[in-house]
Amino acid sequence: MVSTNKIFNVTILTCISFIVLFISCRKNKNEQLPSFTSFDMKIKDDKNNLVDGAELLIFDNYNDYLNCLNSPNYSFITGALASGVTVNGKVLLDSLPSKRSYYMLAYIANTQLLPGFTIYYDNSEGTNTVPFKPENSSAIQGTIILRPIEGVLTFWTTYTQVASNSIKVVVGDNQPNNLSINQSFPGRPAPSEPYSVKMRRGTYKYYGLSSKYCTWTGEASVVPGTSSFVELPTCVAGAVSFYSSDNSQSLFPVEITLGLGIKTDTIFGTSQVGGCNINSANVKNMSLPVGKYSYFAKSLKTNCAWSGEINIVDNSCLEIDLKKCR
User: Fold this and answer.
1) Strand, helix or coil at 137?
2) Is-cis flag, bond preceding 148, omega within 30?
């Protein structure tokens, strides 16, 4: 009969042997993992053509990757571990540490897609057939597809009262692009005209103002690789300039509402003169199509209020003095 002590000893020896074997296997497996890996990549465009002259950047930090992706012309490349340019559509980047995640950014400039503009292609909207994290291999092979990331907005107008630089257009909120339209078009101009702006994919607000008091506002969408046209239609308009010659500083600010909330603005102090050529916190100008409008103004500190009706006349500026409140 086998004693309990012998069974216990055999069990212990078996467990120890298993643990040693497990550690040995793990050690051998880790020793087999390569210390370095390489990327052997093909880069193609959205029409499946191999691309020469495309640059491939490899990052191991996501923020560095984003900073480069969002910088003008990919100029911010701090943190890139490796880079290379395709020859015959291929690029090899080697001696990169294995067992970590990588972020790949490939790009190239195209001067033929939209004449007059250099449009960038990259892989942020394309597809990568290679995973970001290299497998346990000494060489990773894959294909990167580049797609256009920029498009063109072209602004144009049939408004015939356009003199030199008489329509200013601002596109976007954070980094405005200023355009000047100095002639009217019976049809659309070419997208390479100076009334065009290149932007990345997105929907942007725009604001246009003519020297004849016409205004245009709206939103326009940029589709990468294409030209989109935005018409500023013919406009007949004038303007009104509000100010207050009341010297009582306790009156201000004064809020002005035109029509049923068509436009609102605020005067923050007194002014002895108004005029559409004055742009200040104490003189507020509003451009409107020709017609009659009511207005209502009130002090935000006192009970003072003003109201009336105005007649906007084409190509003219009406001045309204919110006189001393009684």
Assistant:
1) coil
2) no
pLDDT, tens only, 66-101: 999 989 889 998 889 999 999 999 999 988 887 778
Give, in degrees to the nearest 5, the angle at Cα 115 between 107 and 194: 110
Judge whether 299 and 251 are in contact, CB under 8 Å: yes
> Is the residue at 3 inside a domain?
no
C-beta atoms surrounding 145 within 10 Å: 20
Q: Answer yes or no: do 136 and 158 share one domain.
A: no
> Phi and psi of 191, rounded to 5°?
-70, -5
Radius of gyration of the chain (CA): 34
Model pLDDT for residues 139-180, shown as the tens digit of each residue: 788 899 999 999 999 999 988 877 766 888 889 865 567 888
**Number of domains observed in the structure of the chain:** 3
Residue whose entry in the numeric block shows the structure tokens 């995640």: 101
Report helix, strand or coil for 83: strand
The DSSP letter of residue 32 is: H
pLDDT of residue 248: 82
The CA distance from 201 to 216, in Å, is 22
Judge if 117 and 183 occupy the same domain.
Answer: no
Residue 286 zone, left/alpha/beta (φ > 0; ψ -120 to 50; rest): beta
**Does residue 1 fall inside a structural domain?**
no
Q: Are residues 282 and 223 in the same domain?
A: no
Q: Which domain holds residue 68?
A: 36-148
Q: What is the CATH number of the domain that holds 100?
A: 2.60.40.10
CATH code at position 216: 2.60.40.1120
Which one-letter amino acid corresponds to residue 234? T
25, part of any domain: no
